[in-house]
């Protein structure tokens, strides 16, 4: 799986119950919240998405997970807003001379991770965006907050080197039976991974079926008024190739006035469907009720999505026309 944000762990938790070898390739371009503060202070890959993926695949007792995930209260001046797991990942990385990849592998053993969690890059990356009005911005949080229509994104390394993934990431992609993108923010969780040149190239070279889990809701500052076909078009345009084989689309309507708009203020309207537009891009469309409603928010039903992914694995090469 390739992605980041809150959607990735939902699917990882479901996959962990199946007899599959899971590798999560996680974005390292986050510059907000606790991850952003840690990144700015000690120049380490932002650990938040990595932490959540590890917990989703961990076999340690629930108490250990709760401690790892615990976030200090905002009135704790020194540790305000920081998750303990973020601090542990940062410390291990510093102990390993800022080798975040090796630090995550060591911690994965401690956390009894059932699978692999790989940072998409071993160095912190900055997400850059060009907007339709011709302006540019750098930084995930700045881009999301701009409220402008994004034309394209790319990543740069903070040490001015060419962004690259370590060989283990590329080998995992090339040897995969199935590559899953999402669910997650299109421009700030999925594309930052694919814009690392050797990651994007590996996805195009892979013989695995590429499955995109389309978002249920459009997102403020990223995908306002987007259809499912427009989500896929953006992915194809960025890699200059129609590489997505199958798209999972939720068709269950979200009940009116269910969402807490203050708590989930980044989400706008339900993604509209354009199945003709998806098929015109060479995609097989699988539509079903993938909706889960909880805490007055809208999420993917991890169990339903995973069952569909498992069925796809059982039908090798079935996406080829």
Automatic annotation (TrEMBL):
This is Putative gluconeogenesis factor. Transmembrane segments: none annotated. It comes from Ligilactobacillus araffinosus DSM 20653. The keyword ATP-binding does not apply. Belongs to the gluconeogenesis factor family. One of its GO terms (molecular function) is LPPG:FO 2-phospho-L-lactate transferase activity. It is found in: Cytoplasm. Its main location: cytoplasm. Keywords: Cytoplasm. Signal peptide: none annotated. Coiled coil: none annotated.
